[in-house]
Description:
The complex is a heterodimer. By secondary structure, chain A is mainly β. Chain A has one domain. Helices cover 9% and strands 41% of the residues of chain A. Chain A contains two helices and eight strands. Chain A has helices at 7-12, 14-19; strands spanning 21-25, 31-32, 47-51, 55-64, 77-84, 89-94, 107-117, 124-132. In chain A, the strands form two sheets. Chain A has a five-stranded antiparallel beta sheet. Chain A has a three-stranded antiparallel beta sheet with strand order 2-1-3. In chain A, strand 1 (21-25) and strand 2 (31-32) form a beta hairpin. The longest helix of chain A has 6 residues, at 7-12. In chain A, 33% of the residues are buried. By secondary structure, chain B is α/β, with parallel strands linked by helices. Chain B has two domains: 4-119 and 211-236, Thiolase/Chalcone synthase (Peroxisomal Thiolase, Chain A, domain 1, 3-Layer(aba) Sandwich), CATH 3.40.47.10; 121-210 and 238-386, Peroxisomal Thiolase, Chain A, domain 1 (3-Layer(aba) Sandwich), CATH 3.40.47. Helix content of chain B is 37%, strand content 19%. In chain B, helix 7 crosses helix 11 (289-298). The longest helix of chain B has 16 residues, at 22-37. Chain B is globular, with a radius of gyration of 19 Å. Residues 25, 27-28, 30, 39, 41-42, 44 of chain A line the site of zinc ion. Zinc ion (ZN) is lined by residues 25, 27-28, 30, 39, 41-42, 44 of chain A.
Amino acid sequence: MAYLRSVPRVWREREIKYRLIGGACRSCGRRFYPYRQTCPACGSEEVERVKLPETGTVEVFTVVRSPPSEFAEQAPYVVALVRLDDGTLVPAQITDVDPGEVYEGMRVEAALRRYRTQGERGIIEYGIKFRPLIQ
Amino acid sequence: MRRVFIAGVGATRVDEHWDKSLRDLMRESSLKAIQDSGLSKKDIEAIYVGNMSSGFLQGQEHLGSLLATWIGVPGVAAAKVEAACASGGAALHQAYLAVRSGVYDCVLVVGVEKMTDAYTGDVTDALVMAEDQEYVAFTGLSFVALNAFVYRYYMKKYGVRQEDIAYFAVHDHKYAVNNPLAQYPRPITLDEVMKSPLVADPIHLLESAPIGDGSAALVLCSEEKLKALGKDVHLEIAGSAVATDVFSLHERADPTTLLATVKAARKAFSMASIEPKDVDVLEVHDAFTVLGVIHLEDMGFAKKGEGWRLLKEGQLEKDGDLPTNTMGGLKARGHPVGATGIYQVYEITLQLRGEAGKNQVPDPEVGVAQNVGGVGGTVAVHVVRRVR
Ligand SMILES: [Zn+2]
């Protein structure tokens, strides 16, 4: 029954989501995702927009077996917190790999992928997932 | 500022109430609490309703005015208070402030959630609304998955075995057996917990609070109003605090500590002039076993990484040093999310009055309830003291 999100709502998040735009605080040095004008750690408004690195390491992960309604067809799938190479932590799905083969410490890289389709009337939403990094 | 007392309490059983609506449930608990107080409906000057998801699950908002009419007191001040699973605790804080400030002499605070009107997938949608919809829930994370991250971080950082954490569920069920309002009043074994299906690895189904319907209510009043009632036992809300943390789990420095718990507990304890050792009976928000253990640590009852020892050494039993979740906790009493914070104080009230039946703790004076919204984005802590 999940509610339909409007096209403008998805559209205005596109840059931060598709390009992995984070914030870097000039006052306390903290880097965070997603970007916003105020630092969540110290409250400073002196935050710079930064393009975050597209490679990182799986820090923790879980297999979602009882999913939100819009993800029902995808289950089971892996969601993780990925520690990017600059130290920023990002939540994302892990893709292109069997759930049983994901491990903590796995090296991964960003890939633009489809996240969810809002029924027949809604739009298709994309975002960054991470896949195993082939070295 | 005026002192604030609990004059009456009431609650429905936590259950799958197929025959009762959201409004039926909150009406039932409200009327029970008013009757228990010895006051009358006409004494109620304001109503605060703690609820998380009625807009999404029932398509119904505006619960304050709705309840005022359905208990027959239209005209009073009323509003819904929302802070995810801490909605009940946050509503109680508002009710407390209303009496403490001197504006009202008598207020009703009600927690309610009706979860079984929706399909499981939709309840999953509703619960994850506690997290950032645009950048976190967007990835398909469920609320259980977020807690699974906390679980992984915790076991990794402190090297604690999952069995020692999962035992929290066994503890809760043991006490639910003697709670007539509990959703699952039957014992379970550690083996059953560890062999139950995974919801989001490493969290098993039997480590997770269930989905259910329920409502609990309290009548709060001023000292003047209380004296007129001539009761023997006076229960004072000696501390009431709400704190927040950085909204999303992945942006916090340490995911194994809920800073909002640390802050709210310190504030509430200081208001009541108590220390952790003074607490005689405790209710913690163990929506998942690992969170129960973390809360014990964050409130100052154990060192970080050692909360599980209190469980294992029997200190959380009714005759232990820190009787905890003595009516079944979230796991077995049940967790109708917006109502949970009020159920906790309802149960503390029974203990302090000596009305907890077979689960009665020997002569408790100070009770504490901790209620968590999201993965600690909001935490409410209340201290209730029996005054002679
Ligand atoms: Zn900063």
